Amino acid sequence: MASPVVLGIESSCDETGAGLVRDGRLLGHAVASSMDEHARFGGVVPEIAARAHVQALTPVIRRALENAGLGYGDIGAVAVTTGPGLSGALQVGVSGAKALAYALGVPLHGVHHLAGHVAADTLDHGPLPQPCMVLVVSGGHTSLLLVRDLVRDPITHLGDTLDDAAGECFDKVARIFGLPYPGGPAVDRAARDGDPYAVDFPRPLAASRAYPYGFSFSGLKTAAARWAERHRAAGAELPLHDGAASLQEAVADVLTAKAVAACTDHGVGTLVVVGGVAANSRVRALAEERCRAAGITLRVPRPGLCTDNGAMIAAVGDLLVRAGAAPAPLHLSIDPSAPLHLAALTPGLAPEAAV
Ligand code: KG4
Ligand code: ZN
User: Fold this and answer.
1) Of 103, 153, 280, 336, which residue is least crowded by CB atoms under 10 Å?
2) Hey, what domains does the chain have and what are their CATH numbers?
3) How many CB atoms neighbour CB 285 within 10 A?
4) For the chain, what is the largest distance between any 2 Cα atoms, rounded to a whole number of angstroms?
5) d(CA 249, CA 240)
6) Which ligand has the nearest atom to the CA of 39?
7) DSSP character at residue 3
8) Which residue minimizes the CA distance to atom 7 of ligand 1?
9) How far does residue 139's CA lie from ligand 1's centre (Å)?
10) pLDDT of 135-187, one tens digit each?
11) Closest ligand 1 atom, CA of 248?
């Protein structure tokens, strides 16, 4: 018997996403972003994001359904991001998901946002090998995760950023460089015409014994800010392309070196790179090069599935449904700072996953 179509809803930050997945297959998805409304503030404004979700949620779900050639009556389960993220933004998605699940009489599942990023890759490349190493690099997270069965086993959190996330570093430095928000894609574009070795930016925690899988990007951000200040104080034009290329090289170098080392140290043969920064051209190229040299298989989803979307949440929901996870109660709550331990943020898990 075919498993049900799972609708996934994502609203943890500035993207409103809806996706439909069945049996590991993406049937259709749609995303709306309030990014432009935040641009003049140089970062996401939580209240603006929450209001934008209110306006976008229903149209985005309708677009995802149209995209898949399905109607509301075809939805067999609803999965929604319950955390981590901005509380007002999360509330909108969770409220919408509850209303739909109740009205349609279908089960509801709460999903951890980072587990969604991990599962995104299954929509492009099939089931994840067990175990695999996952580098989640986004605007809010920089984490190395050892993943076994994504929905049944606890996830081992090997390391995190001690301060700024990699995407946050791109966003903040881009602002200092006078590039538009979001900074990551802008730095990526500016870097194309630059020399990645023009500026010797630091590689924070690169050789740290205390934090072998930990990251730190705030010192790098400060180094880039000082570099820009020095040029401006001297009345010189900022060599923007070289600065962007060198910054990108420093970030890509640290991320990929630590991710490959984590694989080697743990005897893991597959590295999965996900999250918005996985869309970065240099991160992708250097990960490819270093994985090939180390005999590690690299998996990176298409850029549209790297940034926040509803399909990735539907992918976790689909895995939960097929694993027989018990649905969440309708009083399911958001958890804005949810620690990553299990993919599902609901009390009713498959028995093997309960710890
Ligand atoms: O995963 P995501 O959409 O949202 C979060 O969960 O944070 O990631 C957004 C982050 C932003 O910081 C953005 O600047 C960064 O991903 N990003 C990139 C690129 N595309 C998006 N960073 C570097 N290069 C890119 N091409
Ligand atoms: Zn994200």
Assistant:
1) 103
2) 5-119+306-354 (3.30.420.40), 128-300 (3.30.420.40)
3) 12
4) 71
5) 14
6) 1
7) P
8) 139
9) 5
10) 999 998 999 999 999 998 889 999 999 999 999 999 999 999 999 988 999 99
11) 23
